[in-house]
């Protein structure tokens, strides 16, 4: 893996570097090179499963598997959660057809150019830092799950209560106080070149905790066939 980390998310036309991660949904390791020359790949890079929005993003990504498979596109979800903790979660919350891997060091996020966001009192330098005044002004809309659009922290607390998710010591180990890992999806062609992406970095924070647009993704995947 290259030691060079981009200062912005990889863009269409950029070649993704190889990464090797511990598999969650099966034994062994998973590498991006496993897919090169074989099939396009949608890779989702998420926070740990302690993030209620990311739990939903992972499930939503798995639901797109049939449509993506029809177009020959494989999928891989990467979470910061330790392997055994993640396996325990998926044992009780199974997601059929999910291929997932663990990256507690956030190495994949770094090589794809997704920054670790620092929370400050009231100074924002997006996407490297954000003031709490800006965070409380953000609005996340999850119809059917949240009663109304609300800031990510309040909405996340409500979703955690709804899910009954209990944060364990393993979850705490990968937390970085005062920071939040930004996340995103990248669609790679057979050569590992980025052809489409959706990340929390763009739109000056308006994408934080938002789900991708399935129609936009499937349209991009269709162009790889």
What does this protein look like?
The chain has eight helices and ten strands. It has a domain at 20-114 and 181-222: Glutaredoxin (3-Layer(aba) Sandwich), CATH 3.40.30.10. Helices cover 29% and strands 19% of the residues. 36% of the residues are buried. The mean pLDDT is 94. The longest helix has 12 residues, at 52-63. The chain has 225 residues and is of the alpha/beta class.
Largest sheet, in brief, is: 7 strands, mixed
Taking strands numbered 1, 2, ... along the chain, how are they ordered across the largest sheet? 2-1-5-4-3-9-10
Number of helical elements = 8
Name the helix and strand elements from N-terminus to C-terminus, one letter apiece.
Answer: EEEHHEHEHEEHHHEEEH
Integer-rounded radius of gyration: 17 Å
Task: Find the count of extended strands (DSSP E, 2+ residues).
Answer: 10
Reconstruct the topology from this structure.
Layout: E1 20-23, E2 29-31, E3 41-45, H1 52-63, H2 65-70, E4 74-79, H3 83-92, E5 100-102, H4 107-111, E6 116-120, E7 129-131, H5 132-137, H6 152-163, H7 169-173, E8 179-181, E9 184-188, E10 194-199, H8 214-222
Parallel strand pairs: 3-4, 4-5, 6-7
Antiparallel strand pairs: 1-2, 1-5, 3-9, 6-8, 9-10
Question: Which structural traits does this protein have?
Answer:
225 residues, alpha/beta, Glutaredoxin
Question: Can you describe this structure in just a few lines?
Answer:
GO terms for molecular function: antioxidant activity; oxidoreductase activity. Residues 10-225 form the Thioredoxin domain. With 225 residues, the chain is an alpha/beta fold.
